[in-house]
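User: I've been going back and forth on whether these two constructs are worth ordering. Before I decide, could you fold them both?

Assistant: Sure. I'll take them in the order you sent them. The first construct and its structure tokens:
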Amino acid sequence: MKPEELKVGKVPESVLKRSVLKQIHTKRPEILLGAGVGEDCAAIKLAEDEVFVISTDPVTGTATDIGNLAIHITMNDLASAGAEPVGAMLTILLPEHACESDLKGIMGQMEAVCAEANVQIMGGHTEVTRAVNQPLVNVCGVGKAKAGKIVSTAGAEPGDDILVTKWIGLEGTSIIAKEKEQELASRYPMQLVKEAQGFDKYLSVLPEAATAMKSGVKAMHDVTEGGIFGALWELAESSGVGLEIDLKKIPVKQETIEICEYFGINPYGLISSGCMLMASSDGNTLARELEKNGIHAAIIGKAMAGNGRVLLKEEERRFLEPPKTDELYQVV
């Protein structure tokens, strides 16, 4: 039987209770007022020596696993500032002809990620609207950090080592492999396609952020839209430093290389949630600590005095350019 479509406008109270509120199980003691019928706000209490850290991000590039991606991306933003994620406020906009099962599926994905990270969904807004043609989710994340312990993108200094964790292109590779499964399966073994689809298991950077905070990290930036080239530019611009980056040292999975070659896109410009860019005055020690905790890490270059942002590949030298439209949008 075809599921009944939701009507345009705010979702009915019965749907809100059944497919939204009943999906929320993770609770935090800091949250005094959370999600409920008629509640438009949330309330949080922190200790005297703690500060709020807040981030907001939409997911617009894909509807595949949108709930999973939306929570991960915002939690990663908080982690990159050295904050512990506490809660999330959601805005879920569904297109006409969406069904309650679509909403329930998105909420289920979100709660699964929240449960793993011990994050409470505090509230938000859900409606069906003619303004979107696919589900759109925006997450406002709230975290906490000790006063004076915030880490910013702007903390890199000349002489610092530049590191990346895990591999570039993880998020984009996973999205493309899911949305273009049949096309890729006609070219590559299904095992490669399935492996690429599974890269979403690497999306959280909370573990590496926690390790880095104990190991003298000076700047962190999660690698999202614009890929590693975009993240490097933003780190350098924010910190007011130059860069010398060895392209051959940037870690990338073979599945990402194959899929990018097939679609004619650049893996260095592909959305890369799950990969964290870091600056440290002692990159070797930081890399060792990350590896001890099971997190692959590589030193890819150094921050330099001045404004030169140089990419090195053997004898070739070229300059990094400002971020461009993410390569993902050429494919999906």
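The second construct, handled the same way:
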Amino acid sequence: MERQENLHAGHRQRMKRRFLELGERGMDDHQLLELLLFYAIPRQDTNLLAHQLISRFGSLSGVLSASPNELRQVKGIGDSAVVLLELVPQLARRCWQRENEAEAIVRNEQEAAEYLRPYFFGVRREQVYLLSVDRKGKVLGCDFLGEGGDSAVGLDTRLLTETALRHRATWVVLAHSHPSGLAMPSQADIATTRSCRSILRALEIDLRDHLIFADDDYVSMRESGLMI
């Protein structure tokens, strides 16, 4: 037993050294996940568990996007591992958001989409953000407007207008996520967008686009001809 524990400890030390020497590019997805799980599961062999997780959820990204309930269904995953696997994408999203906020310039809808993309990394519930921009393209704010369940969110138009007015925005972009994995706008999305655009137009604020994100994909309602 003692020899087995020494071999186990030696393997973990080798994995840590390999990561420090080579970084993430020197390791496969399952090895990175195995290494991460060291810090939540001190004695169990996490190599097999990493393979099982990736097989179950399809990819490393799928593991980090899985819900706590889904993760708990995998034998060997306890609360400590769930917290760690939930924490990683949320920390990454927070870091990307903070970096984006530093004197960012957005000149068009495509740049707005790239700015907004990190806000939806690993998000499993439908969330809505409003990007406010001035006449010169400076980002004035990217505000969270609400969160729904698995498939729908109610947009508070009063909060929308108050947010745009508070920033004194010249133009804005709405963005929300579709946890279903399909970025195509629904009829409700189209109706809500046209209503919001009419309300903001009365305040001399241009709703430039409404972007719908799903996984690594997004759809622009302007480019799809749905803003009319």
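Notes on the second construct follow. The two ends are 71 Å apart (CA to CA). The chain is about 50% helix and 15% strand.
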